[in-house]
Specification:
264 residues; 4 strands; binds zinc ion; single chain; alpha/beta; four-stranded parallel beta sheet
Length: 264
């Protein structure tokens, strides 16, 4: 196909593709603070790329990216892990020192948006919806999984939720926030949008509270005692190679899951 972007296709082309591959991909992610060195569209731009590449392999179409995402208030335990005061009201990655707020929508609004989107997919005769979330917030993934359970359970639409990052050997998702992997992914996809020089040079430590850059150890409940970013997840040691390799594996995992879902 010349493109898998539904917006550029005529009805006849869409119906023809649906007869063979009734799959629709929805990339999802908010405009969100990602440190001084990354663009605010990091999550949705990443999700869009993964969805497009996966659709090329599995067949199906890609819906225009949903530039939406949700976050919740941080628990006192997480605030402590991040090095923030336990009594503060902090939503997602909007830390006090940031110069700009993120474009989060409340969780209930997000759920309505995605539900409406799934209803549109049913109405348009798609049979499989693949929700690719570039944003890894717990409440975002929980909301998507809850909706997927409902649509799968009622048999109305086969729905798959994918967070396109790679599991480490330790069973943890090796993705922090604006740390090594996300920086590498943007260096791979849109190098002109990344400005590593806006961070201090290595080995100067980066504190979580400086720019809301957080390593995956911290999200797994194992922060550094001084609440700095661990060297193995430091944005300054990212590279386009790491980014491409991460996305290659993520696309492979996703296409396998879609093929399995088709057989069910
Ligand atoms: Zn992100």
């Amino acid at each position: 196909m010349k493109t898998r972007q539904i917006a550029f296709l005529r009805p006849k082309e869409i119906v023809a593709e649906q007869k063979i591959n009734p799959i629709i991909y929805l990339p999802i992610g908010p405009i969100e603070w990602h440190g001084p060195h990354l663009p605010v569209g990091t999550d949705p731009l990443h999700a869009s790329y993964i969805a497009e590449k996966a659709a090329d392999l599995t067949g199906g179409l890609v819906w225009p990216t949903a530039w939406w995402g949700t976050e919740r208030e941080r628990s006192s335990q997480v605030l402590n892990d991040l090095g923030l005061s336990e009594s503060e009201y902090i939503v997602g990655m909007d830390f006090p020192a940031n110069s700009l707020k993120s474009g989060y929508v409340p969780e209930d609004v997000f759920a309505y948006l995605i539900r409406s989107q799934l209803e549109i997919f049913i109405q348009m005769n798609f049979r499989i919806a693949v929700l690719v979330s570039g944003h890894g917030a717990t409440n975002q993934l929980d909301t998507l999984q809850r909706l997927a359970a409902e649509y799968n359970g009622t048999g109305r639409l086969k729905t798959l939720v994918e967070l396109p990052f790679v599991l480490g050997d330790d069973g943890l998702m090796h993705v922090g926030h604006a740390s090594c992997i996300e920086t590498s992914i943007m260096e791979a996809l849109y190098p002109e949008t990344v400005e590593i020089d806006s961070l201090p040079p290595l080995p100067k430590p980066i504190y979580n509270t400086d720019w809301a850059i957080v390593d995956y150890h911290t999200f797994a409940g194992k922060p550094a005692p001084d609440r700095t970013v661990h060297h193995d997840d430091d944005p300054r040691s990212g590279s386009a190679e790491i980014g491409f390799e991460n996305m290659r594996i993520a696309i492979e995992n996703l296409t396998r899951r879609v093929s399995e879902l088709r057989k069910m």
